[in-house]
Amino acid sequence: MKKSIIVFAHCLLFIITFASNVSAKVSSNCPNPKEPMTTNMVNSIIIPASTSVSLKLIEAISSEEVEIGNTVYLQVYRNVVVRNTVVISAGSFAEGRVTKVKKAYNTCGECTSSQNQCSMIEIIVETVQAVDGSSINLNGMPHRLKGQCSGMGSTSVEIGTRISARVLDNTPIYL
To answer: Which residue, of 35, 88, 108, 122, is most buried by count of CB atoms within 10 Å of its CB?
Structure first.
């Protein structure tokens, strides 16, 4: 009986020590409501879906040179602000891709314009970089850039051509 009491006492002491260590670890990870929040807490902002992003091409492209699937590089030209905080800064880079290319052609020497095919480039802007360095998905709305409809002309899109896109989903960024 005496041996049982000693074993019970040791078990009880172990349980009490274990419980106090676990309690100390849990309380050190939980914020104290009486203390102000520290700066090591991560701030985040949600960029709402459909937020407009103003972009411009940073390279010239031509329907005679590009192919479907080519990457197109763009740059943000106006800060995107959510709740008085810049979430995508002017100068950030964006990427898109060429989804369609039509080269102009004339099927006969003296034809009406209805027998000509106009040159065209279609671009979809896919991603942009946020201030935290993360990649934000943009909508897949195609931007069709049309060129000449007669002769053998091509569509040329100059550096600085402006294109707008919208954020695809509610997206958190971390400041």
So the answer is: 88
CA dist., res. 136 & res. 126, Å (int): 8
Same domain, residue pair 17 and 62: no
Q: Which of 56-65, 110-119, 162-171 has the highest mean pLDDT?
A: 162-171
Q: Is the CB of residue 97 less than 8 Å from the CB of residue 124?
A: yes
Domain with 55 in it: 45-169
* Contact predicate 153/64, CB 8 Å: no
In a domain, residue 64? The reply is yes
Q: Are residues 132 and 84 in the same domain?
A: yes
